[in-house]
């Protein structure tokens, strides 16, 4: 009996040696209501083979990908139909580091996903960069922001792809800033409250010693709120926050920090209490506005507490300035007398008297009018119009 070993070897290869699997490249997709864009992560592709029939797409091409230089390919069953490639509606763009396919949908509609089945292959990703650019074709029209056009769909797809919703940097920064300030002012109020509960009125004189450093740091941080509208992080003007924050800074750093005899006065306790109460409501309100959530109680407090607290705050600031005038007359701190090499004179107590007049009358009127306008807008009753049948 003659055994043909070559035939046996071929039969073994036929049944036991696995066929070579063509690897799939990474594919990143994006869409508009008219187009599907696929970015295929392959380098040095020369003549790819693309076949489109109804809602099926096949791609084969040789290039350099995750598995080195070899033949790559993939098949996709899409969510809905595409226009046939026979109509010459498919655009293929070859780049050194990628291949881009621009496919036209048969019907203009927004797809909830790319594939027919909810489960997608691991190599298929969402091209979030392209979602924020033009719709994939050369056009003179203004660039579209698909994230703004379809925010719900964008958030859902991003969560499915990443497992979480990627927040905008500005949004994250504003949340962290407002949360930090809220915690800071809560800390100040908590320390004052605990000390008052233990020592009662005897704790008032040492208020600045225990929370003055925290208050100074929080006050300096508030100057970021002047820069937020400058850089487009928030809406509104720069003048109003600058005047409000600078007014507080003048009282805190020039009137209280620079004069030790003022630091033990009871008015400092009441001033810090008023500032803290205003801010522990304001910053949580801002956080809800970032998330576009409406909590009526918080909104009502934000635009109602100022009615008693703002006049009391201005009154406390005025008392601090008024009681400091004789101290600065005595010490001449921050004052410049003639003669000097600059031929310049400055008398701080005179500036304090002028500032006191501006703060008490025009300043209070300006701040109260501004807050009244905001309160009118924010708390006005909502009118709901229903159509009768």
Short description:
By secondary structure, the protein is of the alpha+beta class. It is built from 13 helices and eight strands.
Description of the structure:
- The protein is an alpha+beta fold.
- 51% of the residues lie in helices and 13% in strands.
- The protein has helices spanning 5-16, 128-131, 146-149, 151-162, 169-199, 207-221, 224-230, 239-257, 260-263, 266-290, 296-302, 306-331, 348-378, and strands spanning 27-31, 35-40, 49-53, 56-65, 68-77, 91-94, 99-104, 124-126.
- A hairpin with a 4-residue loop joins strand 6 and strand 7 (99-104).
- The longest helix is centred in the middle third of the chain and has 31 residues, at 169-199.
- The protein starts with a helix and ends in an 11-residue tail after the last helix.
- Residues 133-144 have low confidence and may be disordered.
Number of E-state strands: 8
Return the structural class. alpha+beta
| Alpha carbon gap, first and last residue | 97 Å
Average pLDDT level: 83
Which spans of ≥5 residues are poorly predicted at pLDDT below 50? 133-144
Query: What summary fits the major beta sheet?
Result: 5 strands, mixed
Percent of residues in helices: 40-55%
Tally the helices: what do you get? 13
**Strands side by side in the biggest sheet:** 6-7-2-1-8
Shape: elongated
Q: Give the SSE string.
A: HEEEEEEEEHHHHHHHHHHHH
Q: Provide the β-strand percentage band.
A: 5-15%
Radius of gyration computed on alpha carbons: 34 Å
